[in-house]
Each structure stands twice: as C-alpha cells, then as structure tokens.
Amino acid sequence: TGAVSGLVSATALQPLDLLKTRIQQKGTTKKRVNALSRVHPIFRFITSTVQNIVRKDGFLALWRGTAPTITRNVPGVALYFYALQNIRSAIAIIPPLNERNRPNVSTLPKASHGGNLLAGAMSRTIVGLVLNPITVIKARFESDRYAYRSMMEGFRALRQSPGGLTQGLLASALRDAPYAGLFVMSYEFLKEQNGKSIPMHWVTRKPEYTCHLSGGCAALFATTITHPFDVIKTNMQVNPARFPSLTRSGLSLAKDRGIIGCFDGMLLRVVKKVLSSVIAWTVYESLLLYSSTKM
Fold it and tell me: How far apart, in whole angstroms, are the C-alpha atoms of residue 280 and residue 12?
C-alpha cells in the first residue's frame, strides 16, 4: 500500500519538485529580495522558469528526474509506512508514549502526541539514511548543472567524488526528522479534531474526508517549519564545491540571499507536500481499511 501511494504521488507531482530544485539552485539575490517579497513576482519567477525549461528541452522535460524520484519514493514510502507502523506498535505498549483513553481515528496503532512525534521522526530518519544516494542523484537530475543520461551514470559520478554518497545527509536529517515528526503528530491530532467537527456519518461512510483535510493541513504546517533545511540540502547536493558543509552552506545562503532566500521554492514545496500527503495517506489508509474489512 505504501508503494502504491508513493508511485502515484511521485509521478503526478514531479514537475513541482523539478521547479523547486531549479529555483533553489538559482536562488534569490539581495537585489531581488524586495521584489520577491511580494506575491506576484514569485509567480512570474515560477512562470519564467517553466517557460525556459519547455523552450529549451520540451514539455516532457518538466518530468526530468522522475526515474530517481520513483526509485526513491516507491520503496521509500513503503519503507516509511512499514517502519512507522512497527515503531508505533512498539510505542503503543510504553505507558508514557501511549494514551489509551484517546479515540483511535487511524488505521495506525494508537500513541500519544509525543509518541507520534517520535515515531514519525525515527521512521523518516531511517529512510533518509538508507536512500540518501538516490536523493542526491534526484536533485542533480532536476538541476541544470548535470547532464546525467542515466541513474547508473549518476551513481558512478557520486562514487568518484569524495563524500558524494552522503552529500547533504545532515541537512536532510535536520529537515526530515522534524518534518515527519511534526506531520504525524499534527495529522493524528487534526484527525481527532475533524472527527469531532465533521458529521459522524461522513466519517464512517467517507473516512477519506478526514485524511484529505488532516493530511493537507499537517503537511502545510510541517513544510513551513522545516523549509530552510531543504534549501541548504538542495544546494549542498547540487553544488558541493561551493556548499561543502551544513554550517558554511547556511551562512553563505543567508549572506548571499538574505532571510527570504532561505525560503526559496517554499510555495512549490508546500503545494507538492500538501498534495502528496493527501494522496499518500488517503491511499494508504483506504487500502489498509479495505484490506482489514476483507480479512
């Protein structure tokens, strides 16, 4: 079920990831900060990036990087949901991380808010460590600095560069652990609240309503909080010579681009994360609910 949800979201939303990487790579300079602080120039910036990609390489170039995205997301999402299920099952028997009196509105084992935060962070960190080399290749496919013709060519290039396989790993962990922890915690909390406010016959007949709303809101919250680390991660993986370490990358980006530059591409990442979370969690919980009723 996790693999199915990962495949659907990865294929459908790849252009948003590609645009985000290009914008983060290009970045905003301090001369453009005042202009980009308004909404409409940001949309012009995105539009011009799309036009340049399509004019140079054609419409299908917006899906460049889909192969590494699928290679990462399909097993990654499956592994994430598997780890999350098992970690929450273990947490559910630990009294401080378990709240048996709270309603269980999820197909996942019931845990406290702190337990959900811990389970999400641990699960996503494990996946990030395992799949980081593919994440680096994905970022480089999406950028315009590399002309890899295949994933094997990308792997060979990473192996030949010092630290290539672990490039941006710390920045990814600092992004993914709090993101996943905050997401799972707020997702479960919002499902409880939505279960109280949405008419009960909607919840029982159409449980995907609560998944849609809760998943989208949780993704919006967690993405906004963690986005600066996504900008650092992208630049470390795409241009390691200029951004060799987490500290130097953060200081360099803040100096060159200012505070607003640390949120380059956030609109695209928010849209992508909201949509992918709605797709992934709705598909995942719906399939689990369907399989449980057939057993």
Answer: 12
Q: Per this entry, what is the length of the chain?
A: 295
**Domain residue ranges of the chain, discontinuous segments joined by +:** 2-294
CB atoms within 10 A of CB 63: 14
Tokens 């919002």: give the residue: 190
pLDDT(103) > 60? no
Q: What is the pLDDT of residue 294?
A: 60
- Token readout for 195 is 């279960």
DSSP 245: S
Q: Which pLDDT score, from 0 to 100, does residue 210 have?
A: 63
Mean pLDDT, range 116-138, rounded to an integer: 90
Determine phi and psi for 152, rounding to 5 degrees: -65, -40
Above 80 in pLDDT, residue 113?
Answer: no
DSSP code, position 90:
H
Closest to 258 in 3D by CA, of 69, 28, 103, 50: 28
* Cβ-Cβ contacts under 8 Å for 85 (sequence gap 6 or more): 108, 109
**218 Cβ contact list (under 8 Å, min separation 6):** 182, 183, 184, 186, 187, 190, 277
**Residue 130 · residue 220 · CB < 8 Å:** no
* Architecture per CATH, 2-294: Alpha/alpha barrel (1.50)
233-258 mean pLDDT? 90
Taking the C-alpha atoms of residue 267 and residue 246, their distance in angstroms, rounded to an integer, is 23
What is residue 237's predicted lDDT score, i.e. its pLDDT?
93
Nearest to 98 by CA among 197, 108, 222, 83: 108
- pLDDT (tens digit per residue) in 72-97: 888 888 888 889 888 888 887 777 66
